[in-house]
Amino acid sequence: MTVDIAPRLARNSLYYALKSVVALVSMLLVTPYIMGVVGPELFGIWALAAVVTSYAQLSDFGIGESVVKYAAEFHARRDDESLNQLVNTVVITYFVLALLFGGLLLLAMPLIVGGLLRIPDPLQAEAVLIFRLSVAVFFVNMVMGVFASLIVATQQLGYATSVNIASTCVGAAGTFGFLWMGLGLRGLVLTNTLVALFVAILNLWLAHRLCPALRINPLFWFDRGMLRRLCGYSWKVQASNLSQLLVFQLDRVLLSRYLGLEAVAFYEIGSNLALYARTFITAVFSPMLPAASVLHAGKERALLVGLYRRACKFLALGAVPFCLLVVGLAQPFIRLWMGEGFELAALTLQLLMPFYLVNVLTVPGVFILNGINRPEVAMRTALCAGLVNIFAGLILVRSFGYFGLIAGVAGSLTLASGYFMVTLHRCLGELDRRIYAGILIKPLLLSLPMAWALHYFDSRVLIDDVFMLVAAGAVYAVVVGGLLFAGGYLDAFERKQLLGLLPWKRGDG
Q1: Gap between the Cα atoms of 246 and 234, Å rounded
Q2: Residue 251, class by beta-carbon neighbours within 10 Å (0-12 exposed, 13-18 middle, 19+ buried)?
Q3: Model pTM score
Q4: CA-based radius of gyration for the chain
Q5: Who wins on pLDDT, 21 or 36?
Q6: I need a labelling partner for 296 at 20 to 30 A (CA). Which of 113, 223, 253, 368 fits?
């Protein structure tokens, strides 16, 4: 990596990590409160509302990620005319898509609630209302999301992180306040509406500040050629997004249809923590997309390979110990967080986490290939995972119930990840397959015994207070992290970049 890209990439990754941590803390605070106020069945409906809005995201047609890629290239070249064409073309395209697909979804909602999800009759009217309101809020976010993508493309992620943290705090405050007022699920939708408006105003202001030449006039700046260019890239991303939803959201649909809302509620708690962990790791490496696009535009092929190798090492350094720590402490964590009676949620987290780890190891390769105009690889991989999960999930949930569904998710993630890695090395022939042994073996050998020791300790002693939980996690982190650093896992350059993230170290070099 060049001297100027490496510190920026590390700094932007830190911003993403901070944003994800704040979101996780907010989720940990509000989830028990929501469950306690509305109960398992309405909590299940709220979880399914998130599923419905996730599928509404398909109306984006993959354009959001295309905006980040092309805006990063135009901004790097100081091509203000193309940037204006890009932003305005996307705004008017999003508006048309929101009217078309939003209207269809609102009309189809009774069929989705009663026919597909099989929500009990007494709860269907409330579910239809909540789903419709949630979809409407989503489309507002989608239309205004182009300005958030523009901020990310400039790689000034301190601004994006500030907006995200502020919106998370507003959302948490609204959740507690409106539920305390007795508004139930409608209060949660009202909270999301206020957050959407707040974020839209801030992102619009920041986009103008970061790109002073930006002009919002869709009728003047709309460009069909730009739309064709976006679609040529975005349809591949769209297919990947669809397949991701078939893996990470279809499970809740199947649970609602075959096992009921309470099964959705327990699965939501366990799988949501695993998904947050995966999202956190993905978010940390998201700056690789604009960085890879810039390197690709400059024809820096050797630097791309170096970027991938170091990203994989940093990923293994954080993801392997973290995921195994989650497995080791899942039972006491869920017990202290949600109370007694949620053992199934903890077991769900333990079963899913290793397979999410396998999947997340492909993240650096996905961003590298997307940045060099090869999104079809991630698309084919996601399609593989999605199709396997559909058939495996349908068969296994009927035959083996709850744990059959988990087996289907695990199998689809493993097969798809293997396919992706094989294809990645075909696309980037310069990559040496032998790097993975050196990257993965040491973190695994150090983390596995410590994670098992934590699980064994809880089974014998019972971790029953927050202090013991934090102390156990701290001992794990110190032992595993210390051995990795003392064992020379990182080279001098990598240690410098990692230590450079510390506030008191930034002035050193």
Answers
A1: 18
A2: buried
A3: 0.76
A4: 23
A5: 36
A6: 223
